[in-house]
Amino acid sequence: MAAHDDSGAEPGTGPTARRMILGAQLRRLRERADIARADAGYHIRASESKISRLELGRVGFKDRDVRDLLTLYGVADPDERAVFLDMVKESNQPGWWQKFNDYMPRWFDDFVGLEEAASRIQTYELQFVPGLLQTEDYARAVITHGLPETASAAAEGRVALRMRRQRLLFRPNSPRLWVVLDESVLHRPIGGRRVHRAQLDHLLEMITLPHITIQVVPYERSGYAAEGAFTMLRFAEPELPNIGYIEHIAGGIYLDRPDEIELVGRSLDRLAVDAETPDRSRQMLLKVRAEA
């Protein structure tokens, strides 16, 4: 399926993932050829930091640069070169989310692409229901800071983007989604009573899907595993590392160093212990819904 097909690509086939895979493969070729980043950069009229960004998949690739690097790294076989150059084309295809660029901050672009490519998404929230599980009215209440009747065109665009992201949960080979919620999230009446009740109903419906799990950390055990919300993205492709993501008021932070991923993993392990089981969490949801 083409990477820009709005119906949603298979996991790992989106442009963001393709860029990261291509970068990782070029890094291995460079290391195998025992060529320093600075020398590779000089060869394509670029800096050492540019090579680093290319190898991490943080920037787009130019066909000419990849051709020159392949030559430098000793890749002469036409068929092998063609595979790399095809990946350049695929990695430069626009993702479906780019049509929302007017409403989406630049720092969020990479996250949507990585989320689209993930095979497993693990997220912890202590204030809101995660975006992938929000109803449209709940999302609008969050995005407009509780004033949905004043929603601007930009706010409606962000709501539409959030709803579009959710399609990945219903495609073939959809990622496994594991959500840990602080108990307070269940009780916080975002958008008012009607919206709150509908959101709880939606969560109860979503956990009937086999690839979606919700666990709730009760009040008496909350606040110990992590200081704030975060997400871990895991990928089926061996070239793609696990990536942690933390969002704040002015941007997003990506965590990919081994020590950072280890800390995120420890927090996930602690959350798995502190949270109620999926069945017990469902019972908590039902109880809150009955009282809402």
Summarize the amount of helix as a percent range.
40-55%
Distance between the termini: 43 Å
- Strands of the widest sheet, in order across it, are 3-2-1-4-5-6
Overall mean confidence score, pLDDT: 91
Tally of individual helices: 12
Q: List low-pLDDT spans.
A: 1-12
Over the alpha carbons, how many angstroms does the gyration radius reach? 21 Å
CATH-defined architecture of the largest domain: 2-Layer Sandwich
Broad CATH class of the largest domain:
Alpha Beta
| Overall number of domains | 2
Q: What is the CATH topology classification name of the largest domain?
A: Endonuclease, Chain A
Protein structure class: alpha/beta
> What share of residues are in beta strands?
5-15%
Overall geometry comes to: elongated
Count of DSSP E strands? 6
- The run of helices and strands is HHHHHHEHHEHHEEEEHH
Protein architecture, described:
The chain is an alpha/beta fold. The chain has two domains: 77 residues, lambda repressor-like DNA-binding domains (434 Repressor (Amino-terminal Domain), Orthogonal Bundle), CATH 1.10.260; 188 residues, Endonuclease, Chain A. It is built from twelve helices and six strands. Strands 3-2-1-4-5-6 form a six-stranded mixed sheet, with helices on both faces. A hairpin with a 2-residue loop joins strand 5 and strand 6. It starts with 14 loop residues before the first helix and ends with a helix. The N terminus is likely disordered.
